[in-house]
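Forwarding these from the shared drive since the link keeps breaking.
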Amino acid sequence: MKTSLKCMPCFMRMALHEAELACPGDEELHREIIVEWGRRLGEYDLGDSPPALARHLAELIREKTGCGDLYLEDKRQANARVQQLMPELRAMIEAERGKDGGDPLSLVLEMAVVGNYIDRGVDIDVDWEAELACVSQSLDPEIMAGLQSRLKKGADVLVLGDNTGEIVLDTLLVEELQRLGCHVTYAVRSHPVINDATMADAEAVGLTALCEVVESGVDTPGTVIERCFPDFVERMRQADVILSKGQGNFEALEGVWPGVFCAFKVKCERVARDAGLPLGSSALHITTNSSVCSCEMEK
């Protein structure tokens, strides 16, 4: 997905927020970062996806402040809070499993999508805990049925992770996929960017003890193919199913790598328009229109 001019206010807001996180109270430095970021934005190729451009902001913040993982404590707190909710969520899943015609996979995926609200890259104010407590199954039933038909015993499923907090809910998703007999590999970012999950987060929430966890290679808040390790691109090519979590992964892969099942919360008007879904809805979308990686899909 290309970057739109409508993305510019969000980029500027994020720059100010991260400048304030890195150096609280230093308004002169904040101004210097904002001015420089505005100048650089005017030079970047808007044909790139928003996550591809976002990495440049992380580089600028490090360059100007020397700060690395700005969201380290935020990520720890998000993971800890969701872990506290796990007993209740597991009870909900087992209740669904016990119903006639129950669909625990759909419920678990809905839960994991609600966790996508825990995103420090967008300016939203939503009670994700309240939504999680009374989660409804609203994902596109036709696409959900198509996904479930692909999740056969022995299927190689690659899950592209996104945010912290959300990654705790993804442990439930991995467990459900394994119940179906799928071999699951879970991918995390290779470098800290916004509050996205890294290998350290996967280890902290027990995901590495549950399934194979790999780094994608990216330093972007989305799976930007050009930033991936070559061997990770090969994993994508060989996977029977790619299940992508989060809006950033959708933005990075839409129009680039077709056939990916993208599960995310619609958190901006531009994405709502392109996905054809209401703002705030839970999306299950299949990427289309590969312009770069059609050759990558051949097995």
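-- next protein --
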Amino acid sequence: MSTDGWKNFGRYGADRDPGNVHGKIALGRALEDAVERMILEGGIKSPATTRRGLKARMNYLTTHKGGAQALADAGITANPATIRAWRKGTQRPRPANLEAIDTAYWNLRAHNVLANPALLKAHLNNGGRGTRIEIHPINQDVVEEPRRRDNLRVRSFQARYIWDDAVDALTAGDADKLAEIWDDVISELDSDYGAYQYVSSVGLGA
């Protein structure tokens, strides 16, 4: 396989599988998955139906900017006294309001994480140690048999120094920058890097 970035990608059938995409797309998806994991894994673990979980959510919603609006957007119309009682745990919301509080909490947390790209950068930079990246080659079952590469395999290595630019590109929706970053990533794969310009998926160990 040449290392020209597969300019004629699809000539031999690789594009028959919609899962085979340019690395910039796979990298963007992997970054979005990392954001989602940050939102979920760093969030409140106790369910909203428990006293602990409810108080934690109400504390977050009443001490973070945008909490009141998040509650309103989720359909909460309770007066301030009731909101205070929910926060203190002296009054329990109806099931529908519990669900709305949970929705408001996760929506606000997601907004706050997405609004602060520095959090994701720090997470991926990992104190200078970087993040492990796992590159899965294209599905070759759809490629014309004489053109298949039997030696393509999953490649995995620790990636450093790219994450600030990658997060900025994701935030800005800059596909060209993601493509440049992907070229930097696969340059670590020695002379075979051109075979990974297009991939089936990218995973991040973060």
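Confidence is low (pLDDT under 50) at residues 1-6. The radius of gyration is 22 Å.

- D.
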